[in-house]
């Protein structure tokens, strides 16, 4: 993982989308919309930017009933989000040997 700011991820709503998706395998469009408290069109625009960057996949599985839109981060999207978070943490001066950094790397003090 590379520690670097990512302009695609950095926008507040896109950062929140990535955070939500990083915590799960996928999320339904309406759930993301409701958690973010934005209109469908706003969410759609942010998802399109992330999709165009290769950071997420949008799928509409067919089946019985109403078709729902599902969103999930790609491996590249997870790396970009993790690197962006590390760059943000670096702003706060979290040293590499801190307990927080050790926990992230599976080490304890």
Automatic annotation (TrEMBL):
Record field: transmembrane: none
Winged helix DNA-binding domain residues: 14-91
SUPFAM superfamilies: Winged helix' DNA-binding domain
Pfam (any one): HTH_34
Domain of life: Bacteria
InterPro entries the record matches: ArsR-like_HTH, WH-like_DNA-bd_sf, WH_DNA-bd_dom, WH_DNA-bd_sf
Protein name (database record): Transcriptional regulator
Annotated organism of origin: Sphaerisporangium corydalis
């Amino acid at each position: 993982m590379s520690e670097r700011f990512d302009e695609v991820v950095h926008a507040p709503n896109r950062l929140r989308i990535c955070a939500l998706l990083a915590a799960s395998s996928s999320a339904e469009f309406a759930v993301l919309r409701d958690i973010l408290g934005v209109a469908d069109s706003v969410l759609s625009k942010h998802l399109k930017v992330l999709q165009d960057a290769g950071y997420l996949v949008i799928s509409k599985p067919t089946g019985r009933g109403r078709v729902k839109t599902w969103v999930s981060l790609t491996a590249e999207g997870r790396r970009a989000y993790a690197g962006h978070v590390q760059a943000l943490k670096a702003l706060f001066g979290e040293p590499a040997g801190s307990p927080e950094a050790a926990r992230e790397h599976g080490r304890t003090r």
